[in-house]
Design a protein that fits this description.
The protein is α+β, with helices and mostly antiparallel strands. The chain contains ten helices and 22 strands. Helix 5 crosses helix 6, helix 5 packs parallel to helix 7 and helix 7 packs antiparallel against helix 8.
Length: 535
C-alpha cells in the first residue's frame, strides 16, 4: 500500500509535490481536518430530521381533474322554414337579452293571417260572453215590466172572475127558482135529492114535455152543487178559481138550455088556450122569454170574462217565459257549443301565430352574438344555422371523472381551478353542478361526464381554455395526522415508529381519511406531543 501511494505521489506534477511539502499546506490541511471533526461531533448531538412531533391539523381530500372551459349555453340558431331575410337586428359581438329580436324573414302574409284569426277569436269570445252574461239590462227591464203588467192584469181578472162566479149563482137562482115558479109545479120537498116537477099549463107539445121537466129536475142538482162550491170560493187559489169557472160555464149552459126547452113548449097559439088560460100562457111566455134573455146575457158576460181570463193567462205565461229567456237566454248546450267555437278559433290563432313565429328568431337566453351568417335579402334554407349565441352566464368546465374517484365527488363540492393561460397562483373558485349517472367506457375505463361551474363571471376566462381542477371532496379539521410515508403496513394492520426516549417503538394505529396532501388521519394509537419517525 505504501508503495502504491509513493508511486502515485511521484506521478504528481513537481509544483503540486512542492505545495504538499510546504508548511502552509500542512497547516491548512490540519485546520480543515479539525473543522470536519468538529462538525461531525456537533451533528451527532442533533435529532434526526425525520423525527416529527405529533400535532392536530387539517386533512384534506381532493380529486384532481383536467377539462376545457366552455359556455354554459351555446346555440347555433336556424329557422324552421325557408325564406328571404327581411331584417337583421344584431351584429357579431353584440349583447342580447333573452327574447330580444335577432333576425327575421319576410312575413307580411303570415302576420295578416294571424291578425284575421285573432279578430275572429275576439268576435266569438264576445258572443260567448253575451251567452254567459245573458240579455242586456234594458231588455231585461222591458221583459220584467211586461211580466209585472201581465201579472197585475191577470190578478184583477181572477178577482173579477171570483166575484162573477158568486153573482152568477144568485142571478141564476132567482131566474130559475123565482121567475119560473109559476111555470113548474113542484112536487115534493124543496132541495130533496129527488125533486119532481110538472108543468102548470096545458100544451100542444106534449111530446116534448118530458124534456123541460127532466132538465128542471137535473138543474136542481146542479144548483145545489154550485151553491156548495161557493162556500169554498174565497179560499180557492187561481187554479181552483179557474176550474170552478169551467164548471160554472157548464151550469150556465145547462140553465140556458133549460129556458130554451121551456119556451119551446109554451105556445100561445095552441088551440087549448082561451080566456084566462090564454092570458096565463101569454104571461108564462113573456116571463120565460125574459128569463131566457137574462140567462143569455149573463152567459155571454161570463163567456167574455172567461175568454178574457184565458187571454190574460196566455199573456202572463208568455211574459213569464220571455222574462226567463231574458234572464237566461241561452241553454247550457248553447253555451257549450259556443265554447267549442271559441276553442276552435283559439286553435286557429295559435296555429297562425306559430307559423308567424317561425319567421322570427329571438334570443332564447341572454348572451353574446358570436356569428351572423346571412345578409338582408339572402334566401336561407330551413334548419341551416344563420346566427350563433353563447350565454352570458358563468362559464363551466366539462370533465370526465374516473370510476376510482366518482364515489368521492358530490354535487356542490367546491373546487379550485387554474388555467394554463395564467400563472399557477391565479386561482378561480368553482363548484360541481352536475354528474352524469351513466358511464362512458374509454380504453376499458369507466368515466362519468360532469360539469364544474365557475362561481363568478371573470373576463379572463374564455371558452376553449385548458383548466386544472382540484375538487375538495372532504375535509377534517382539528384531527391528528401523520405523513403517509411514516405508516408501515404489516399483516393487514398499520404501524408507526414512535420515539420513546432513545428507543424507537413500533406502535399499532387505526387510520381514518387519507388526504390528498400526503397526510393520513390517525383515529387512535397516537396523541398530541408524541414523536414519530417519518422514515
Amino acid at each position: 500500500m505504501k508503495r502504491f501511494f509513493t508511486k502515485m505521489y511521484l506521478k504528481l506534477p513537481l509544483k503540486l509535490r512542492n505545495l504538499l511539502k510546504s508548511k502552509k499546506f500542512i497547516v491548512a490541511f490540519g485546520i480543515m481536518f479539525l473543522l470536519i471533526v468538529f462538525i461531525s461531533i456537533k451533528n451527532s448531538n442533533k435529532k434526526p430530521e425525520d423525527i416529527i412531533t405529533v400535532e392536530k391539523g387539517i386533512v384534506i381530500q381532493e380529486v384532481s381533474l383536467t377539462g376545457t372551459v366552455e359556455p354554459t349555453k351555446n346555440i347555433d340558431y336556424a329557422f324552421d322554414r325557408s325564406g328571404r331575410i327581411d331584417k337583421i337586428y344584431v351584429k357579431t359581438g353584440d349583447l342580447a337579452k333573452e327574447n330580444d329580436l335577432l333576425i327575421s324573414l319576410d312575413n307580411d302574409d303570415l302576420y295578416s293571417q294571424y291578425q284575421q284569426a285573432l279578430a275572429s277569436l275576439k268576435i266569438q269570445q264576445i258572443k260567448l260572453d253575451n251567452y254567459i252574461k245573458g240579455s242586456r239590462t234594458e231588455d231585461l227591464q222591458i221583459a220584467q215590466n211586461q211580466y209585472d203588467d201581465a201579472k197585475q192584469k191577470l190578478d184583477i181578472s181572477y178577482k173579477n172572475m171570483n166575484s162573477l162566479l158568486s153573482s152568477s149563482y144568485n142571478s141564476i137562482e132567482k131566474i130559475i127558482v123565482d121567475d119560473l115558479n109559476n111555470v113548474f109545479n113542484y112536487m115534493g120537498v124543496w132541495n130533496t135529492e129527488t125533486p119532481e116537477y110538472s108543468q102548470s099549463f096545458k100544451t100542444c107539445h106534449n111530446v116534448n114535455i118530458n124534456s123541460p121537466l127532466l132538465l128542471r129536475k137535473n138543474f136542481e142538482t146542479s144548483l145545489s152543487d154550485w151553491k156548495s162550491q161557493l162556500t169554498y170560493l174565497s179560499s180557492l187559489d187561481k187554479d181552483g178559481i179557474y176550474n170552478t169557472s169551467l164548471k160554472v160555464k157548464e151550469y150556465l149552459d145547462e140553465a140556458y138550455n133549460l129556458l130554451v126547452s121551456v119556451n119551446n113548449i109554451i105556445d100561445p097559439n095552441c088551440s087549448l088556450y082561451s080566456g084566462v088560460d090564454l092570458t096565463n100562457i101569454q104571461t108564462h111566455k113573456t116571463n120565460t122569454l125574459a128569463a131566457q134573455t137574462s140567462i143569455e146575457t149573463l152567459r155571454n158576460t161570463f163567456l167574455q170574462s172567461k175568454s178574457s181570463l184565458d187571454s190574460l193567462i196566455i199573456s202572463y205565461n208568455s211574459a213569464k217565459q220571455n222574462l226567463e229567456i231574458k234572464k237566461n237566454p241561452y241553454t247550457p248546450d248553447d253555451i257549450l257549443t259556443q265554447e267549442a267555437i271559441v276553442a276552435q278559433s283559439q286553435a286557429s290563432v295559435n296555429n297562425a301565430l306559430a307559423n308567424y313565429n317561425k319567421t322570427i328568431l329571438r334570443a332564447p337566453f341572454s348572451g353574446k352574438i358570436t356569428k351572423v351568417i346571412p345578409e338582408i335579402g339572402d334566401i336561407v334554407s330551413a334548419n341551416k344555422p344563420v346566427i350563433s349565441l353563447i350565454g352570458d352566464d358563468n362559464y363551466q368546465i366539462k370533465v370526465n371523472i374516473s370510476e376510482s374517484d366518482i364515489a368521492k365527488v358530490k354535487i356542490n363540492n367546491t373546487a379550485k381551478v387554474t388555467l394554463d393561460a395564467y400563472s399557477y397562483d391565479t386561482v378561480f373558485l368553482a363548484k360541481v353542478v352536475h354528474i352524469d349517472l351513466s358511464a362512458t367506457i374509454t380504453d376499458g375505463v369507466a368515466r362519468y361526464s360532469s360539469i364544474i361551474k365557475f362561481n363568478e363571471k371573470d373576463d379572463r376566462i374564455m371558452p376553449g381554455m385548458t383548466a386544472n381542477i382540484d375538487v375538495l371532496t372532504s375535509e377534517k379539521k382539528d384531527v391528528i395526522s401523520v405523513p403517509n410515508r411514516a405508516i408501515i403496513s404489516k399483516d393487514n394492520k398499520k404501524f408507526i415508529k414512535v420515539l420513546n426516549g432513545k428507543e424507537v417503538v413500533l406502535t399499532n394505529i387505526i387510520t381514518g381519511m387519507r388526504g390528498s396532501d400526503g397526510n393520513t388521519e390517525v383515529i387512535s394509537g397516537l396523541k398530541v406531543g408524541d414523536q414519530i419517525v417519518s422514515k
